[in-house]
Design goal:
This protein folds into two domains: 64 residues, Diphtheria Toxin Repressor, domain 2 (Orthogonal Bundle), CATH 1.10.60; 73 residues, Diphtheria Toxin Repressor, domain 2 (Orthogonal Bundle), CATH 1.10.60.30. Helix content is 68%, strand content 0%. It starts with 31 loop residues before the first helix and ends with a helix. Helix 1 packs across helix 4, helix 5 packs across helix 8 and helix 7 packs antiparallel against helix 8. It is mostly helical. The chain has eight helices and no strands. The longest helix has 32 residues.
Length: 188
């Protein structure tokens, strides 16, 4: 039996001298997770655009392909097909500058937030009026001098009686509608 011997020579690479100020990795290349987060963010933006009606989309500068994709997405009924189409819309968004779209969506969100705050302020005023705070009636009259004072007092009185009797919320809702109409018709 013949024996052969092999010689294995290994060479180790010479370590380069790295400067301490150089980062060990390139920071310009986004990580795989960052790419996935960005793709998901754009897909969600596409879903929001898909939920908007044509009048709301008219104010946005969308590319022709993206507009056609959004129109087509509204017609898709298949759940899986719609999921894939949303991913396609996200891909189209990756290909264009979305800063104007994001600014418009932020504007819509802030308007919604302001509407919510106004709604909550009206609810708070209504609760103060029903709770028996007569200063609140004076504040409403001072804020809206054109108000029908007799009707306001009658609505407050009926809502208080209704709350004491625990018989529903019909008059409280009528008071809320009255206050909302005052705010909508306010010239200031």
């Amino acid at each position: 039996m013949l024996m052969r011997t092999f010689s294995i020579t290994t060479t180790f690479p010479v370590m380069a001298n790295f400067d301490e100020s150089d980062p060990p990795f390139e920071s310009d290349i986004p990580s795989k997770s960052a790419i996935k987060r960005e793709a998901e963010r754009l897909k969600q933006m596409g879903e929001r655009l898909l939920a908007m009606n044509a009048a709301e989309l008219a104010g946005l500068e969308l590319g022709e392909r993206l507009q056609l994709a959004l129109e087509e997405g509204r017609r898709i009924k298949s759940r899986e097909g719609l999921r894939r189409h949303k991913q396609f819309i996200g891909k189209l968004l990756r290909e264009q500058d979305t800063s104007a779209i994001e600014a418009r969506l932020a504007q819509i969100d802030s308007a919604h937030s302001l509407n919510t705050q106004a709604f909550q302020a009206l609810e708070h005023t209504r609760e103060q009026l029903i709770g028996g705070d007569n200063d609140s009636i004076g504040a409403v009259i001072a804020r809206h001098p054109q108000v029908d004072k007799q009707k306001l007092r009658q609505l407050v009185r009926n809502a208080r009686k209704e709350r004491e009797a625990q018989s529903g919320t019909r008059h409280a809702r009528a008071l809320f509608r009255f206050l909302r109409e005052l705010e909508l018709n306010d010239p200031a």
